[in-house]
Design goal:
Shape: elongated
Distance between the termini: 42 Å
Number of helices: 2
Order of helices and strands: HHEEEEEEEEEEEEEEEEEEEEEE
Strand content: over 45%
Structural class: mainly beta
Strand order of the largest sheet: 1-4-5-9-8-7-6
Radius of gyration: 22 Å
Number of strands: 22
Length: 252
């Protein structure tokens, strides 16, 4: 497969952004740093939040923020004057997941594939998966409402010492102490996931009778600072179990 075909998703993205523009673009006052191949290749206060779609932004950085000698092998997209695919080269490794924009709303900006970098920092705080949306927030509120979790009418967790997590645009998530779980129905999972707002999650499976529900419970050993309240608390995956709040079943 050619390198161009291997990056068809980037070509499609660039053509969409050039023809329709981003969903939204804003400069951020945050200091943004990017680590790649053991070097800080970006250290800038001129980064931009670019919403390629409505859900969350990516960081695009000013071309002056990167050593121009590290951006090589430019391959024009479309008419060749508006955007290019490019290679980012370090001493020991490289990535071809780079877009450079010369014209349009994104002129002078470079898109570094978030996952292709070794680390991203906002000020002195690492960020994961993608930048946080500055227009979204998380509220974590203690709640004494009765929270009951069932699988096939079997209670697998029940608590009145909960934390209800409300995240903009998403359904509520209900966290309970691990001491409220019926552990005889659980099994450890090797799954881990990353969330930009909460950190690294670990999981448990549920086994009730003949029914196995994989990764039905998650928890955060070391959550991000903004979500520190949910450390070592457990959350059942609403969509996979029966959730009752004060006796009222929540629709999945």
């Amino acid at each position: 497969m050619s390198q161009l075909n291997d990056r068809q998703d980037l070509i499609d993205l660039a053509e969409t952004l050039l023809s329709k523009g981003p969903h939204k673009i804003e400069r951020t006052p945050r200091r943004v740093r990017v680590l790649f191949d053991k070097a800080w290749i970006v250290d800038t206060t001129y980064a931009h939040h670019v919403w390629e779609h409505e859900y969350y932004p990516q960081y695009y950085v000013d071309s002056s923020s990167i050593n121009p000698r590290s951006i090589t092998n430019k391959e024009p997209i479309g008419d060749g004057n508006s955007a290019s695919l490019a290679m980012l080269r370090g001493p020991a490794k490289s990535t071809n997941r780079i877009l450079v924009f010369e014209r349009g709303q994104l002129a002078g900006l470079i898109r570094l594939e978030f996952a292709a970098m070794d680390a991203w920092y906002e000020e002195d705080t690492p960020i994961y998966v993608h930048p946080k949306d500055p227009y979204k927030r998380i509220d974590i509120l203690p709640s004494s409402r009765n929270l009951t979790i069932k699988v096939q009418n079997v209670v697998v967790g029940e608590s009145t010492m909960n934390l209800f997590l409300f995240e903009t645009g998403l359904r509520p998530r209900y966290y309970m102490p691990k001491t409220a779980i019926k552990w005889q129905y659980t099994a450890p999972s090797e799954t881990t996931t990353l969330c930009p707002y909460k950190g690294k999650a670990e999981y448990y499976h549920l086994n009730v009778g003949e029914k196995e529900i994989k990764d039905a419970i998650w928890w955060y050993r070391y959550p991000t600072h903004e979500s520190i309240q949910i450390a070592d608390m457990a959350c059942f995956y609403n969509e996979k179990v029966e959730v009752f709040v004060d006796g009222v079943e929540e629709q999945r």
